[in-house]
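Reopening this one. Same input as before:
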Amino acid sequence: MREPVELRRQRILAAVESRGSARVSDLAAELEVSVVTVRRDVEELAREGRLRRGHGLVRSALAARDLPAAPVPDGESVAVVVPERHSYLYESLHGARSVLEAAGKRIALHIAPQVGGAERPLVERALADGAAGLLLAPRWRTRADEEDDYGWLAALDVPAVLMERRPRPGSALHAMDSVCSDHAHGIHLAVQHLVGLGHRRIVFATRHDSPTARTLRSACARIAGEHPLVEDWAWTLSAPEAGPDGPYPAEATAELSALLREVGATAAVLHGDVDALMLVQQLADNGVRVPEDCSVVAYDDVVAGLGTTPLTAVAPPKADVGRAAAELLLRRLDAPRGAGGPVRRTELLPSLIVRGSTRARAGCTDPSE
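Same output, byte for byte:
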């Protein structure tokens, strides 16, 4: 199913604003569309004053309008390593950037491609270039990818903080600083919201190709399974390619609209926003109205509010995660070696943004029923 034009343009904006500039050909490859399509989008965004065009290059209009003209500070550098095509973590990057630049630190941004182990050579290069500290968000598409990185990350000899990554207890990285959203609380907010509207049968669809996705799946199973008012629930992958840890049983790869019918569900929670927006379109094609027939909650709130029906969404504090991680890293950099205090594993609570995609269950006059 084709991605909505406005959603694609928001992704272009997010990519360009996170980097300051980008090549049209690179954007086309990342969005998996033609160069002609990206050029057309860029022309419209430039006409609206949201981007600046160059010869094969797109620049952020935000940078031109709002950022000071002073040169990048010449202080010691901090390397930031994030995955490519990850607008969620780019918001965390913006939060970290504001703190680090205010402290006079120079940021060296490294984008890791979508292959296992991509972060290690980038970190080694950053350290060879003199980076004094690291902010890291490894992709960790599978548990094996995560475990493969434990050894060399634990051996780093500069201060480092993980963003939105929480190594398993007892692992070599258990004693590494990290700042995360409390995603279990986010799922709790979604379930409580839907149950409060009288929904008793819920389908959860999450990705399973990142630590966040795996945390969300576990939280869905526990919270829905223990909730006294949830009568039935089911889980499936939000996209066929989102489960590299498979194989999965047939019910875990079921097509979403069919699974909703099978469970008799009147509500769904999806990770992430794009998959939720695509579900709304798919349901409409099958004559199912949102929210009249089915309430939908998205998880991430990057572009959830941009749909024809703006989606109710769980919003992790993405920028605040970046800010808190940068502040923790600065504390380590400013302290004498070994004197920065105990390791910190910080969790920030998500919030729920209620929009037009959820309402009381049809025919339910008393949600406590």
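So the earlier flakiness isn't reproducible anymore. For the record, The longest helix spans residues 318-334.
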